């Protein structure tokens, strides 16, 4: 690269289904981050994900909609020393508006729509 050229980054957001997950991904890491070292051929990851060797993993989202309580506890316990973002859903109550006015500025709540 020349001094005046800027380095561009390509960010890819991939969603996986349970059957795909990370099966077939070999990761490596160190002080520079966590990287895809290898994508094993003929695995769910190679067939369904647009992941390439050398890609850096910046974050991972675990969806809790079909996670057992025990697994959720383990995931949260292992994540304690790291920066974590939560996506929360709160059932509407008369206090919901008041609660959201007193929340921290980095918090957003998606209200659950009524089901009738």
Cα-based radius of gyration, to the nearest Å: 19 Å
Number of helices: 3
Low-confidence stretches: 1-7
What structural class do helix, strand and pairing data support? alpha+beta
Number of strands: 5
Distance between the termini: 60 Å
Query: Judging from the principal axes of the Cα atoms, what is the shape?
Result: elongated
List the helices and strands and how they pair.
Elements: E1 25-30, E2 33-39, H1 44-48, E3 56-57, H2 69-79, E4 88-90, H3 96-101, E5 109-111
Parallel strand pairs: 4-5
Antiparallel strand pairs: 1-2, 2-3
Q: How would you characterize this protein structure?
A:
The relative contact order is 0.11. The protein is α+β, with helices and mostly antiparallel strands and 116 residues long. 19% of the residues lie in helices and 18% in strands. The longest helix has 11 residues, at 69-79. The chain has a three-stranded antiparallel β-sheet, with no helix packed on it. The chain has a domain at 1-63. It contains three helices and five strands.
Summarize the structure.
With 116 residues, this protein is α+β, with helices and mostly antiparallel strands. The protein is built from 3 helices and 5 strands.
Give keywords.
disordered N terminus; alpha+beta; two-stranded parallel ribbon; 3-stranded antiparallel β-sheet; 116 residues; 5 strands
